[in-house]
Each structure stands twice: as C-alpha cells, then as structure tokens.
Amino acid sequence: MSKSIENRAVSRNRDSLKTLSRAWTYFSKKLALALSKLKEDQYLIINAKRCDRYVQFACDGEKGMRVEVSSNHFLKGKDRLNRRQTSWLRENGWNAPTGKVNKATPEKEPNGSPNYFVGLPVSVPAGDIAHLATEALVHGLEIPGPTSLSYQTFPARGTTVEFEDLSQFEGEEPRPREMFDDPEPHDEDDPAYREEIFETMKAIGCVPESLTDSEEAEEYRLWLEKNP
C-alpha cells in the first residue's frame, strides 16, 4: 500500500465522531480496546444483525493489521451496497476490491481482496483503526447503531481470545455475541431512543429502502415525513 493511501485511510478528522450519537462514540472506544488485544493470526468480525454486511480485522503480528469491509461480491439482494455507499468507501481511503472471490484469493493475490480493504502497519494506533472502522460502519455500510451489531472471533490455534469488556472466547469456530453494550442500556422500543436512532440514520443519509426489516423501514418512513 502506498503511503498516500495509508495516510488517507487513517487521517480522518478526530472530531468527526462528535457528530455521531454517544452510542457510536462509546462503540469506537470499546472497539479500540478489543483491537489492542488482538494477537497474530487472530481475527475479529463485526456483523450486522439484520443483513450480511460486515467489517473484519486480521492481525498480522509485526506486519500490522488488515481491515476489510464487505463488498457486493459477498452480498445479495437488499444487502448489496448502492453507488453512494461504494463511492464513500473509495473516497475515504478504502481500496476497491481487486477481483472476484475465486480470483482475489490470498494465494493468487496476497496484496488484494474481493472486499474493500486497507492494510495498516503496526505503528497505527488501535484507536485510529477503530475510528476508521466505525466511520465505515456508519457511512459506508449505513448501520443504524451499535445495537444492530454482533461480533465473531477466530483465535489462532491453541490460543484464547480475550477482549476488554467482552466475553472470553475459546475454540476454533466463530460464535456470535452481542456487541459492545452501551454503558446505559436502552429499551429499543423507548420513543426517545428510537428518536436518537432515527436522527442518526437521517444524518448519514439512510433511506427506508435500504432497511431489510420492513416494519422498521415503515416506522422510519413515517418519522421522516414528520421530521423532513
């Protein structure tokens, strides 16, 4: 990766998260703690609960970390990214996929990926990586909020993955977990909390048609009519 691309990927405005909800800011901090614990050959995958979009992290020891965002090579139907979302990823430091799944493999193309990706040296702080990933979740994948996420971990053989404020994970197979609870958990049916979620969705330009849950899409559409 060229130095310019590397800088563009991590040199995001440090104040940009202040425009997001408190929940996303807290999420980014907890993600940074988790990433700081990753060891060589350990992986962390952040999944959207209601669709197949994800961000994944692979620790390569002293070589740094590879971060990937799901591309349309892995997405179908309503889960696929639209032109606005793919443009945002490309314009904000993410390398475009270099080939299809059977072409851009680690063996055939070790410096590429069928996903949007960035390779970061070990000198990049975990906080910057978490910031980069959080922005991708919000603006690239348009995830409504951290409560819409779960995580999976893949530990290196013979090791245990332990994350700050996350359940201890053991074994070779991934297991879904609830993702980084807000310090003040909310009732998702609480009107004030729904208002906060919809404000965030509106701020990032989320449209009802992008939601896979039809009931939530209709609720959001009615809210937009009252809050143009």
What does this structure look like?
Residues 22-149 form the TY-Chap N-terminal domain. Residues 92-112, 168-190 are annotated as: Disordered. Residues 181-190 have a biased composition (Acidic residues). This is TY-Chap N-terminal domain-containing protein. InterPro entries: TY-Chap_N. The chain is an alpha+beta fold and 228 residues long. 32% of the residues lie in helices and 13% in strands. The chain contains 6 helices and 6 strands, in the order ααβββαβαββαα. A 6-stranded antiparallel sheet has the order 4-3-2-1-5-6. Helix 2 (22-37) packs across helix 4. The longest helix is centred in the first third of the chain and has 16 residues, at 22-37. Residues 1-5, 12-18 and 164-183 have low confidence and may be disordered.
Q: What is the compact description of this entry?
A:
It comes from Telmatobacter sp. DSM 110680. By secondary structure, the chain is of the alpha+beta class. Helix content is 32%, strand content 13%.
Which key terms come to mind for this protein?
6 strands; TY-Chap_N; six-stranded antiparallel beta sheet; 13% strand; TY-Chap N-terminal domain-containing protein; 228 residues; 32% helix; single chain; alpha+beta; disordered N terminus
